[in-house]
Amino acid sequence: MSPFELAEPRSLREAFVALEPDGARPMSGGTALMLMMKAGVLRPSRLVSLRRLGLDRIELRSDGSLHVGAMVTLRALEKSAPVGKGWPVITRTLRTLSNVRVRNVATVGGHLAHADPHMDLPPLLSALGASVTIAGPGGERSVAVESLYAGYLENTLARGELIIALHVPAMKGRKAAYLKCTTRSADDWPALGIAVVLEGGGQTVFVSAATDKPTRFSSLEELTIESDLHGSVAYKQQLIRVYLKRALDEARHSRD
């Protein structure tokens, strides 16, 4: 691993200044970042830690929506009583997201920014209509979670921008399910992730892992399926046929 400087700003303004030089990278939980640095894929000259910015709160808003600071760990989100009561599908999904050691360190903001299509939360949050608040030197903006992704390991954040919060609308009678198919243990990278949200007579479906980013599903013919070590295109097409039916059935019988 190449030598690097560690900056620990105490405000967003300080963080933006610290991120200005070429070679500076933000660090939230660091679980993926450190692996990429050890592999020599990334060689940042400066890491800017976000842990002192006060972005680690989970709040219920007056409209019934959920506000999650970007530095909330996945484990804290999993164990949150308000989340378990109001959005049990998120709690269920987190239980098989990697392992508890990773969830103790990995953060919501880092998880979303990493843009690996095998991540579990992005397709689910996209189906739930969630959005993120993004802050940068020029101010703040809000975008849908699905709009964060441009392709495999590619997000749409501009240089110097940071995800500072996640917002999830109230369920309000909606029913939801997230299923994934793994080729090894239950917490392994999925060959397919599929999220379903039912509302009234309609349904919203997002597919991931079989695609290079969380993708809204309308028909199998319109999807661009990606083969990888977890399965061929034909295999993943069949998985989608099977798991879509299972996810719809689970959503219909859920208590969300």
Cα end-to-end separation: 45 Å
Based on the coordinates given, report the CATH architecture of the largest domain.
2-Layer Sandwich
Q: Order of SSEs, N→C?
A: EHEHEEEHHHHHHEEEEEEEEEH
Q: Can you give the helix content as a percent range? A: 25-40%
The count of domains is 3
Structural classification: alpha+beta
How would you characterize this protein structure?
The chain is α+β, with helices and mostly antiparallel strands. It has three domains: 5-49, Uridine Diphospho-n-acetylenolpyruvylglucosamine Reductase, domain 2 (2-Layer Sandwich), CATH 3.30.43; 58-168, Uridine Diphospho-n-acetylenolpyruvylglucosamine Reductase, domain 3 (2-Layer Sandwich), CATH 3.30.465.10; 175-252, CO dehydrogenase flavoprotein, C-terminal domain (Enolase-like, domain 1, 2-Layer Sandwich), CATH 3.30.390. The chain is built from nine helices and 14 strands. It has helices spanning 12-18, 31-38, 74-79, 81-86, 88-94, 100-103, 108-114, 121-127, 233-252; strands at 5-7, 24-27, 46-49, 58-60, 66-69, 131-136, 139-144, 149-151, 154-155, 162-168, 175-182, 190-199, 202-208, 215-216. The strands form four sheets. It has a five-stranded antiparallel sheet with strand order 4-5-10-6-7, with helices on one face. The protein has a four-stranded antiparallel sheet with strand order 11-12-13-14, with helices on both faces. A hairpin with a 2-residue loop joins β12 (190-199) and β13 (202-208). The protein is globular and about 50 Å long. It starts with a strand and ends with a helix. The relative contact order is 0.12. The model has no long low-confidence stretch (mean pLDDT 95).
